[in-house]
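[[Per-residue structure]]
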Amino acid sequence: MVSAEQNERLTRVGPGTPGGALLRRYWQPAALVEELEGERPVVPVRLLGEDFVLFRNATGEYGLLRRACPHRGADLAYGRLEREGLRCAFRGWLFNAEGRCLETPAEPEGSPLAIRVTQPSYPVRAVNGIVFAYLGEGAPPALPRFDCFIAPDAYSFAFKGLWECNWLQALEVGIDPAHASYLHRFLEDEDPEAAYGRQFRDRSLDSAMPMTKVLREFSRPRIDWEKTDFGFRLITRRELSAAETHVRVTNLVFPNLITLPLSQEMTLSQWHVPIDDQSCYWYAIFTSFGAPVDKAEMRRQRLELYTLPDYRSRKNRANHYGYDPAEQQTRTYTGMGSDINVHDQWAVESQGAIHDRTRENLGVSDRGIVAYRRLLQTAMTKSAAGERPLMVLDPAAAARLTGPATVDGIAPAAQWQDYWRDADGRRRRNAPWAEAGAAE
């Protein structure tokens, strides 16, 4: 059981908190690249309880600055974007992407004020549709050679969604393989439409048995976890018969990334990123190992379900997540439609803004959640002691990390371990963009 003090430590992310200090040692998604593709590429960003302004200048360089102007605190998110950087609309102070003050117009000619003033700035980099930011001290860590980072742009698509709850409970639903048999249960077995959010309606990779039936009729999976260099791997098995086992391999990449199989050709890499203590975004990179993705169609499908500029689900707490009791009796276990993100959102938001873990009663099937909380506590302690926590990587260590493996399929019961390793390696080797020998 988690104590009130431990729950506070695990969930708080603001400046000066143990969790906030830890998460600032990693690259964190700050925005989608598409958010800076309009006529005025300037967006306010709230990340880890702090307020910033993100912009792209005329040369294509990204800058992330503290949002309050250092002169008298005016909001730089309303600043004028110029070739050199961002100019405050209040008194015209101009800052470049590195936070250097270039002009203080109202000051006397030759005033040294601009030289003395600096605006806190932070490293940013765009990778496959997401702008990542580093808010920590010192040099940022290197990124591993994971599929979502090394796949060419044509084989990836990025999106995000707003959840109004603490980031930790949002992440924990992704390392809970047992919930899919209920929360994502569909009561119909027809072939899925080619639509967003229906991964658990897809057919299994190697069998005619639809996933809907696998989840519905085999609801007591065996969940194992194994430690890895990046965090841990979850292996979920449902024994279909003496001869066949359904195997699903997912991963927790420390500190806040999960990787999942979506289909035979596509995987999902999903970060749960704190906006503050009571809200978060999920950021996702969809990576194709087959044909290039249709970005326009994928975005169109999602914008039918999400509203801009906040990327809020059209089904949310305000409209009871679209709950329909008639649908719950005949089509879906939740009665909330076929988008599994809505199911997850309801589950974690209904726990409250910050889930009270002192009232939990965890079981064997929650072993991934227990393992992650221990890992998080250990990393906080190491970070506070000045030690290097897990996945703060130097370039050599980052180059050695590939994958990670994600698999969903039917295996021979006696050879399930060989099955998933072979399936993952084969898919990665055969990807049009993959390097020879890139499989984990």
